[in-house]
Amino acid sequence: MRKLVLTLTGIALCLILSATGDSLNYLTAKDTIFLKLDDFGNGIFSHQLAKGQTMYSLAKFYGLKLDVLYNFNPDLPLDGSVSPNQPINVPIPDSAIVDWRMAWPRKNFIPVYYTVKHGDTFYKVSKTNFGIVPDTLKLRNRLSSTSLRSGQLIQIGWLNTAGIPDSLQAANRNPLGLRMQSLQLAFQGEKTVKKPQFQNGAAYWQREKKGADDYFALHRNAPVGSIIQITNPLKKTTVYAKVIAPIPDQAYGDDIIVVLSPTIAKLLGAKDPKFFVEIKYFK
Prior knowledge:
single chain; alpha+beta; Barwin-like endoglucanases; 2 domains; six-stranded mixed barrel; 8 helices; 11 strands; 25% helix; globular
């Protein structure tokens, strides 16, 4: 009997995740949102494109600009050629996830779940990941204790099937994280008093090196402590990094113009240890 239940559950999940919405609606009452967290704390939903849905209208529905949506999907072709059932990573801001008492009429809202991972604690899931009072999350899931097991589904709240206003996406966090937003603002502040220098060439990063939220770079010419803008023209992705030191003369070849942290390289969609970038910096 247990095997039968598990089999039926697996089939149900496959049906839920096959396509999201239909040709007229991006989300319908039959859909369920299953969130995962990316390396930068964004709640990510894998939207399965239905027939007739496009990247442009999908971005608009979720309150995103098209280039931001591509930032979360660096492996997609930039010509917009996507097929039905193509999974598209979409960030879901915490502010768009509402409490059941606000989800009215209920037919316009669908449940949002998070799958517990190894090492998760109830406090981490509630406060750190989603900014929810622990007692509220406990009540919402009718839990008798705060003990969690890997693979457990926790209902975070509900999402409106009408989509996400761009104001909620903008107010919640910069798509690449609050730290990235602060770096970007610092760079833009420099632009008001200094003229940027331009450079293009090879970037290098160490794939095996670990690091969390290390938004830094080594550069030959930019002052230590300054912010540089780095663009991967192949992926059409731009990020910002803080220069923490010059590139050591003997450690890298002359063709390397910048050494990136793994976090920055990942944000740029890098696959190989060396790849082409365009840089703006201030002296």
